[in-house]
Amino acid sequence: MEYIDDARFDQLVDEAMEDLPEGVVDHMNNVVLFVADDPPPEEPDLLGVYDGIPLTERDGSWGFVPPDTIFLFKNNLVAFSEDEDHLREEILVTIVHEIAHHYGIDDARLHELGWG
């Protein structure tokens, strides 16, 4: 896929959020989702990234901290996708993948579960 405008991409993100598997967001705490055009230069192939403290690593002193973030990288997702339906699916998979990191699930386990 070569191009999709920002408004349509945002709409696909909203649709993916509505299509998240039941229970995926039930225990999320202090997380914000952003869309950026491109990933950081040091990791140019990323489709998305979670930055924060996974729930499994938080203790009683955790609080009053900035929100964890999930970034989706629009240009990489678009370039990776064959068409709009594939893009919608990749957005969903990427969101679930990054939310799983928030829950403390690593990449190896995500691949086992089919969300790699």
UniProtKB/TrEMBL annotation:
<dbReference type="InterPro" id="IPR010428">
    <property type="entry name" value="Zincin_1"/>
</dbReference>
<dbReference type="Pfam" id="PF06262">
    <property type="entry name" value="Zincin_1"/>
</dbReference>
<dbReference type="InterPro" id="IPR038555">
    <property type="entry name" value="Zincin_1_sf"/>
</dbReference>
<protein>
    <submittedName>
        <fullName>Metallopeptidase family protein</fullName>
    </submittedName>
</protein>
